[in-house]
Design brief:
heterodimer, A: 117 residues, mainly alpha, B: 803 residues, alpha+beta, 7-stranded antiparallel β-sheet, 22 helices, 31 strands
Chain lengths: 117, 803
C-alpha cells in the first residue's frame, strides 16, 4: 500500500478511536502520531491529515444531522452566521477539523526530523 | 534549520489549538463547538423517551409515559419518588433554562456571560435576591416534609446532571463554554424569587416622590388617584366585609423625605399579569364548573412553563409546572382546578437611611444609632477579577441605593422593604393544591403563601368556585408606601400584616362566576388600605361583561374569550377624538389614514390597519400629553393610560395639556391633531421601510430565546392578533404564556397550550412545535391518565429504576 494512503487510513482510524474517550483535540493527536510513525513528504504532510479529518468530521456530522433533518444545523448556521446554510456549516466543520489535523501533521513531521537527526 | 522548523511548527500547533479551544467574545471555542463527537452536532437529536434509566435513591420504580406533545405523565408509588422523578424529567428536557434562571435570580450571569451582565447582577444583589432565597429556606426548614421533597427534587436533577458527558450538555452550555453545576434547595428558592421579582418587584415609589415634589399633593392626587372612576374589582363590589373586626393602622402625622432621585432600578415588564375566570354549574352548558387561566409573561424559548402529569396512589395532578419548582402551578387534579393571576399589590417600599458617619456602620432609627449588617456580595466575572459590591442591610432590608449605586450622598441611602424578603413556604401551597380535594383544602393550602401575591382561582367537582387574593400583605396606613418614607421613624415601618383570613376573597358569588385580570382587588368598601399601583382596568371589564352577557357558557365561549381581541381602551377614547378633533387642517394622506382608522371596529385582528394606527397614535399622544415629564436626571413615571384618557376627556383644558415647549396654549383637542399628524408621519416612514402596516406585520410578535432573543434559537413573525390591555394580551414579545381550560367533569376534561414546546433543545422538533397552534387560538387536549397504563395517546414509556 502506498505510504500516503496508509497515512490517510491510520490518521482516520486513530482519530475515530480517540474520539470515543478524548476531547475534540484528539484529532490533532491522531495526526501527530501518524506523522511520526509514517513519514510522508511535501504538501502531503499537511493535506493528507487535513483530508482525513475533514472526511471524518464532515461524514460523522452529516450522519448525525441528516437523521434529524438538519434542524439544529440550520439554526447554528444562522448563529455563526452562515445564512442558515447547513451544508456550509458542514464544510466549515470539516475545514476546522482538517486544519487542526494538518497543522498537527506538520508538527509531527518536524518532531520526527528532530529525533532522526 | 530543523530547529527553526520544529519551533515554528510547534508554535503553529499551539496557536491552532489555542484559537480553536478558546471563546472569543460571542464566538464559541470553535473546535470544541463544531467537532461531531462532543460538539453541537451531538445535540442534533430528540430526547430518548423509552427504555430504562437508573436513578440514585429511588424507593420504587417510576413510569414516565410520553404523549405526542412530549408531555410526560409520571406515575410514582410515593411522593418522594414523584418529586425526585419530576426533578429528573424536568432537567432532562429543560436543564439549561432552569439553571440559567437561577443564575439570573442570584445575580450570577457575569460568571457565564462576562462583564456585559455586571450591571444586571449588581441590581439583583442590591435587591437582596440571594437574601430573600435564604430567608425562604429558613421558613421551609420549619416544615421538614416540604424540605425533604425539595431535596428529593434536587437529587433528581443531580442524577440527571451526573449522567451527562460533556457531549450531552445542552447546546447553550457549549455555546457559552461552561458546564452545569449541582442543583440545590437554594436554587429552587432562587427560582421562586425570580418569579417573585417578576410579579411583585414593581413599584414607583421613588418616581412618585419626584412627582409629588414637582407638582404638589393636589396635582399628584389628580394624576395618580387611589381608585379610578370606573372600578370592576376582582372581589365583587357587593361583598360584605362586616366580618373584618380589627382596627386599621392609624396614619401618623409626619413628613416624607422629598428627595430628587435621578434614576432607579430596572423594573419588571409592566404587562406581567394574567387572566383567570371560572363559572359555576348554573352558568355552565353542562352543569359542571369550568375554569380558565392564562398567565401573561415574556414570550420566551425555552418556555417558562413545562407541562406534566404528576401521579401517586394518593393524588393525580396535571398542568403547567415551573422548571425548578415542585408540583403543578396552574392546573387540576381529579377533584379541583386552580390558576393564578398577579395580585399587583404594593409590597415593595423604600426608606431613606441616614448613616451616622462615613464608615456607614450605623444608621438612625427612633432617635438612636442602629448597626447595619454587611452582606459581602462577590460577583464573579468570566475572564476577569471578581467585583465586590457588598450591600448594607438595615432592619427594613438592603440599602439598595447608596453612594456606590445610583446615589451620591455619602451619608444617605435608600433601603428596600419587600415581601420577597420575608421568607415564606410558597412551595407548600402548590404541593397541597396538587393534593387538594375541595374548597377547604384549597383555603388551607393558601395559608402558607407569602409572595408574590396572587389571585388564586378555584373550581371543584363538588361545584364550588372561589377566588382568594393571597399573599402576606402589609396592613398599611392610608398613603403608606406610595412615596419614599423616613427610615428613622418607627411609625413609617410596616406595622403589621393583614390577618390571612381577612384577605379579600369570594366563594360562590351570586353572579355565578369569579374572575381576575390584575385589576383593583376590591372597591372602596374594603377596610384595608389599597391604592392603585398599576392595576389593569380594561381586560377585567371585557371579561366580566362577557360573563354578564348571557346565561350559560360552553368551552367554545371560553376559547373565544381567551382569543378576544377587543380593544376597550381604544373604544373609550377614539369616538371622543372623532367628535372633537379639528380635521380641517389635515392633508389628503392624513385624511385617508383617518378614514382607515374610523372604519375600525376596535378589534386588534391580524389583518386590520386600525390597531396599527391606534398603536402609534396613542403612543404619540401619551408622550405629548406628558411632555412635562421629560426632565433630565429625574426618575419619573407618567400617569397610567386610564387616567390619561380620563383627563383628556374630562379636563381637556388643564394646564398639563399644554405643550411646554410651544408659545401657544394647547388643549386636549389640539393634542389629538398634533399627535395624529406626527403618528401618520411615523407610520408612513415605517411603511416605506417595511411595507403593509396591517396589525400582524406592524406588531410582528416574536418568541425570543432566553439569551436576549438570540435569532438562531428564536421564532419571529408569529401570526397572532391581540395586544396589551386586551384579553388576548399578546403584544410584541409578551402575552399568554400558557392557556388552560378545565371542565370539572369526573375526571376533569382539560385543554392547554403554550407558545413553545416541551423540549429545551433547539435541535428537537419539540422545541417550538406549539407556537403556530397557540397563535391560531388552538388547544391540545390534555390526556389525563387515570391509571399507570399505556393508552392510545401514549407514544413511548420510560421507566426510572433505582440503582
Amino acid at each position: 500500500m502506498n505510504i500516503k494512503t496508509l497515512n490517510f487510513l491510520v490518521t482516520l482510524v486513530l482519530a475515530i478511536v480517540f474520539s470515543f474517550f478524548l476531547p475534540w483535540w484528539s484529532i490533532m493527536l491522531a495526526a501527530f502520531i501518524t506523522a511520526v510513525l509514517l513519514s510522508i513528504r511535501g504538501v502531503a504532510v499537511f493535506f493528507i491529515p487535513f483530508v482525513a479529518i475533514f472526511v471524518f468530521w464532515v461524514s460523522y456530522s452529516f450522519i448525525l444531522s441528516n437523521t434529524n433533518d438538519f434542524t439544529l444545523a440550520k439554526k447554528i448556521a444562522i448563529l455563526l452566521p452562515l445564512d442558515g446554510n447547513a451544508y456550509l456549516l458542514l464544510i466549515i466543520t470539516g475545514i476546522v477539523g482538517g486544519l487542526a489535523g494538518g497543522v498537527a501533521g506538520i508538527f509531527g513531521k518536524q518532531c520526527k526530523a528532530l529525533i532522526k537527526k | 534549520m530543523k530547529y527553526l522548523n520544529f519551533s515554528l511548527s510547534l508554535l503553529l500547533t499551539a496557536l491552532t489549538f489555542y484559537c480553536l479551544d478558546t471563546k472569543f467574545g460571542s464566538i464559541p471555542p470553535i473546535g470544541k463547538f463544531l467537532n461531531p463527537y462532543t460538539g453541537v452536532w451531538q445535540n442534533e437529536t430528540d430526547e430518548t423517551i423509552s427504555g430504562s434509566v437508573y436513578i440514585d435513591g429511588l424507593l420504587d420504580k417510576v413510569n414516565v409515559h410520553y404523549d405526542a406533545q412530549l408531555i410526560p405523565h409520571l406515575f410514582a408509588k410515593n411522593e418522594t419518588d414523584l418529586y425526585k422523578a419530576q426533578g429528573y424529567i424536568t432537567a432532562k428536557h429543560r436543564l439549561w433554562q432552569m439553571e440559567f434562571q437561577t443564575y439570573a435570580a442570584a445575580g450570577r450571569l457575569s460568571e457565564i456571560i462576562g462583564e456585559a451582565a455586571l450591571n444586571y447582577d449588581r441590581q439583583e444583589r442590591r435587591q437582596g435576591m440571594g437574601f430573600g432565597a435564604e430567608q425562604a429556606i429558613e421558613k421551609m426548614k420549619e416544615d421538614p416534609e416540604t424540605l425533604a421533597y425539595i431535596e428529593a427534587y434536587a437529587d433528581g436533577v443531580n442524577s440527571y446532571i451526573n449522567q451527562l458527558q460533556p457531549k450531552d450538555f445542552p447546546v447553550e452550555y457549549k455555546l457559552l463554554d461552561y458546564r452545569p453545576e449541582p442543583w440545590t434547595v437554594k436554587k429552587t428558592a432562587l427560582l421562586l424569587m425570580y418569579m417573585t421579582k417578576d410579579l411583585a418587584g414593581f413599584d414607583s415609589d421613588l418616581e412618585y416622590t419626584n412627582a409629588l415634589r414637582m407638582f404638589g399633593k393636589e396635582r399628584f392626587d389628580l394624576l395618580y388617584p387611589d381608585f379610578y372612576e370606573i372600578n370592576d374589582p376582582v372581589i365583587p363590589k357587593d361583598t360584605d366585609w362586616s366580618f373584618i373586626d380589627v382596627p386599621m393602622t392609624e396614619t401618623p402625622v409626619s413628613k416624607f423625605p422629598l428627595d430628587t432621585i435621578a434614576s432607579t432600578l430596572d423594573k419588571p415588564h409592566p404587562d406581567n399579569g394574567s387572566n383567570n375566570w371560572a363559572i359555576s354549574g348554573q352558568k355552565s352548558y353542562s352543569g359542571n364548573p369550568i375554569l380558565a387561566n392564562d398567565p401573561h409573561l415574556g414570550l420566551n424559548l425555552p418556555s417558562i412553563w413545562f407541562v406534566m402529569q404528576l401521579s401517586t396512589p394518593n393524588h393525580n395532578s396535571f398542568g403547567a409546572t415551573l422548571p425548578g419548582a415542585l408540583g403543578v402551578v396552574s392546573g387540576f387534579n381529579n377533584h379541583i382546578s386552580w390558576g393564578e393571576t398577579n395580585a399587583t399589590r404594593d409590597v415593595l417600599d423604600w426608606y431613606k437611611i441616614e448613616f451616622k458617619d462615613k464608615n456607614r456602620k450605623q444608621y438612625k432609627y427612633d432617635g438612636q444609632w442602629k448597626d447595619v449588617r454587611l452582606r459581602v456580595e462577590e460577583i464573579k466575572i468570566k475572564g476577569k477579577a471578581s467585583f465586590i459590591d457588598s450591600v448594607r442591610y438595615t432592619h427594613h432590608g438592603p440599602v439598595s441605593y447608596d453612594k456606590e449605586f445610583k446615589g451620591n450622598d455619602e451619608l444617605a441611602g435608600y433601603a428596600m422593604k419587600w415581601s420577597g424578603h420575608i421568607g415564606g413556604n410558597n412551595q407548600k401551597t402548590f404541593l397541597e393544591l396538587n393534593k387538594g380535594k375541595n374548597y377547604d383544602d384549597y383555603v388551607k393550602a393558601l395559608k402558607h403563601y407569602t409572595a408574590p401575591a396572587q389571585n388564586f382561582i378555584f373550581a371543584s367537582g363538588e361545584g364550588d368556585i372561589a377566588l382568594w387574593v393571597q399573599g402576606k400583605l402589609p396592613n398599611k396606613w392610608k398613603g403608606q408606601g406610595k412615596f419614599l418614607m423616613d427610615g428613622s421613624n418607627p411609625r413609617h415601618d410596616w406595622q403589621s400584616f393583614i390577618p390571612q383570613s381577612f384577605n379579600a376573597h369570594t366563594k360562590n358569588p351570586e353572579r355565578g362566576f369569579v374572575s381576575s385580570a390584575n385589576q383593583h382587588p376590591v372597591d372602596k368598601s374594603y377596610p384595608f388600605y389599597v391604592f392603585n399601583d398599576g392595576y389593569e382596568p380594561y381586560r377585567n371589564r371585557v371579561i366580566n361583561n362577557f360573563f354578564n352577557s348571557k346565561d350559560t357558557f360552553d368551552i367554545q365561549d371560553f376559547k373565544d374569550l381567551h382569543n378576544n381581541n377587543y380593544n376597550l381602551k381604544a373604544a373609550e377614547l377614539l369616538p371622543y377624538i372623532y367628535k372633537t378633533m379639528d380635521v380641517s387642517a389635515l392633508t389628503n394622506e392624513e385624511l385617508t389614514i383617518l378614514n382607515e382608522i374610523k372604519k375600525w371596529n376596535f378589534n386588534n385582528n391580524i389583518d386590520e390597519l386600525g390597531p396599527s394606527i391606534w398603536s402609534i397614535w396613542w403612543a404619540t399622544l401619551y408622550t405629548t400629553v406628558w411632555d412635562e415629564y421629560e426632565v433630565d436626571n429625574v426618575a419619573l413615571k407618567a400617569p397610567f393610560s386610564f387616567q390619561t384618557i380620563h383627563l383628556l376627556k374630562t379636563k381637556g383644558d388643564d394646564a398639563f395639556m399644554n405643550i411646554v415647549a410651544t408659545p401657544e396654549t394647547e388643549t386636549a383637542k389640539d393634542l389629538f391633531l398634533i399627535s395624529f399628524k406626527k403618528a401618520v408621519k411615523s407610520l408612513m416612514d415605517w411603511k416605506v421601510e417595511n411595507g403593509s402596516y396591517n396589525w400582524n406585520d406592524y406588531k410582528s410578535t416574536y418568541v425570543g430565546h432566553l439569551l436576549q432573543a438570540l435569532p438562531a434559537f428564536s421564532r419571529f413573525n408569529v401570526t397572532i392578533g391581540g395586544g396589551a390591555n386586551i384579553v388576548n394580551a399578546t403584544s410584541k414579545n409578551h402575552g399568554p404564556s400558557w392557556r388552560m381550560i378545565v371542565e370539572m367533569t369526573s375526571p376533569p376534561t382539560a385543554l392547554g397550550i403554550y407558545p413553545g414546546g416541551q423540549s429545551g433543545n433547539p435541535g428537537s422538533k419539540y422545541y417550538d412545535n406549539f407556537i403556530d397552534d397557540w397563535a391560531a387560538g388552538n388547544y391540545h387536549s390534555l390526556h389525563f391518565l387515570q391509571s399507570d397504563t399505556k393508552t392510545d395517546a401514549i407514544i413511548a414509556t420510560q421507566t426510572l429504576i433505582s440503582n
